Amino acid sequence: MTPGGLVVLTDRRSASGSLVEAVREAIRCGAAWVVLRERDLPYARRMALAVELRAIVPSGRLIVSGPDPLGGSAVHLAGADPLPSGVASADGRRLGAGSSGISLIGRSWHGFEDLSGVDYVTVSPVYPTVSKPGYGPALGAAGAAGMRAPVPWLALGGIDSAERARECAAAGAVGIAVMGAVMRTPSLAGELTAAFAGVGAGRW
Fold first, then answer.
1. Cβ neighbours around 135 below 10 Å, total
2. What is the per-residue pLDDT across 55-112, written as a single tens digit (0 to 9) for each?
3. Enclosing domain of residue 113
4. Total structural domains in the chain?
5. What are the phi and psi torsion angles at 173 (to 5°)?
6. Which residues of the chain have pLDDT under 50?
7. Domain holding 24: CATH number?
8. Does 190 map to a domain?
9. Closest by alpha carbon to 179, among 152, 195, 153, 159?
10. Is residue 171 a contact partner of residue 155, using CB atoms and an 8 Å limit?
């Protein structure tokens, strides 16, 4: 199963209240998937957070940023992250989930990273983003589509309104990945989910 719809990326520093409660409210309002970031936390704290989030995120829909799935089966890799051990053969072919326990791999993609073994990518920044000022230049929805990702893609960056969600859906994204806007206002998840779904996105 490939992530789609609204995918929420965690950011405890911008969350309104506790991170877990912000995620819980976003899920209640329609978020379909969650990516646990917080890569600066000590391992034990991050593992504990993964356990807490798996209790409230729909089964199998917590994705962990980085090659260690923290006891789960899904990871999202930065552009330079290696594939998790045990998921690829010497010639780069993807092995079955049985050898590693990992069944879903995503990667942040800017048009040049190796996508061997990858199931989906995020393309960013689609719009200017408050969370990463100066990150860009912004691609726009048409520019993101024009990159022609060879696997299903999620639009990421600055998607903080229904209009932008609809633009990404119309451009062919299978989902929208949102961090700061939903962390600050979890109820926004409902508006973004409805707007994205209303266009009937995706070509995959």
1. 13
2. 999 999 999 999 999 999 999 999 999 999 877 655 556 665 555 689 999 999 999 9
3. 5-185
4. 1
5. -65, 140
6. none
7. 3.20.20.70
8. no
9. 159
10. yes
